[in-house]
Amino acid sequence: MRDETLPSQLLRWYDAHARVLPWRIGPAERAAGARPDPYRVWLSEIMLQQTTVAAVRDYFHRFTERWPTVADLAAADDAEVMGEWAGLGYYARARNLLKCARAVASDHRGRFPDSRERLLALPGIGPYTASAVAAIAFDRAETVVDGNVERVMSRLHAIQEPLPGSKRELTRLAASLTPDHRPGDYAQAVMDLGATICTPRSPACGICPWLHACAARASGVAADLPRKEPKSAKPVRHGVAWIGMREDGAWLLETRPENGLLGGMLGWPGTDWSGEPQGEPPAEADWRDLDAEVRHTFTHFDLRLALRVARLPHDLEPLRGRFVPHGDFRPSTLPTVMRKAFDLAHPALRGD
Ligand code: SF4
Asked: Which of 118, 111, 126 has its CA nearest to residue 39?
């Protein structure tokens, strides 16, 4: 029979110390019968991939104010959603977010399915998100393993094998603790423990509910775990972006192709991003080099983006892209790399 001691200890700690999060139903409310909105749980989990609670909060509030239900999001205009997502990065997630919302609205009558298997069949929902939504929204006994949980498990059991090789073992260990009683609260409790007590650099073992069971703490190696394989250096790619402003203040922009990096997002016309970038300017004009480049890190490479700027005549017909009138242009709807380019180019164009 499964040992319930550790889950019970952790749930007691969670009852007293759960983080207050805008998408969360806290343990007291849950005990009183409140249930989380699966739409909000799903949205938060998609937003939280690869980023932090602090970075997500404002985006979550804006999305849920503008599109309070999955049906509202499903009916939203693609460009509006991509614009609201700008700055959160990993833009394929925003495109999949829309696909998933539309699948839930059309194939499931606006209700998220309540099992891991059926959630997995939806666009953009991988094993982690399916487990998280099934556990948190529907109280299913699924094991949720994010970076926090990996760290806690590696310390609790003093696993010396480095990540990512130890992932399978850490998942197995996490699964061996997942209780049948309150699995949704338990999943959130392990994540909270990792985020607030068992932190990467200086775990606060003295106030940890698992202090007496923790192997890493007992052997004094907590802060050294989890071990990680050294990362190899990222390749550097280069590109050029052309930033053109018309005499009336309109900006020459284009929507990036759907299937590619930053697909579907608004951006400056540019070359490809490679060792030897290829591409032509979007209009014949007196382009000049800006003595500054954008540096931006993507998952698999570092980008160095050279910038060319020009003031464009009113009657110019661009070879690609379209003019966005000054009053309609919101730099906040650009993905971060394009926003950085704007921030560098704007003063130069204004000062011409
Ligand atoms: S005792 Fe320390 S290392 Fe072990 S789980 Fe708790 S905070 Fe983490």
From this structure: 111
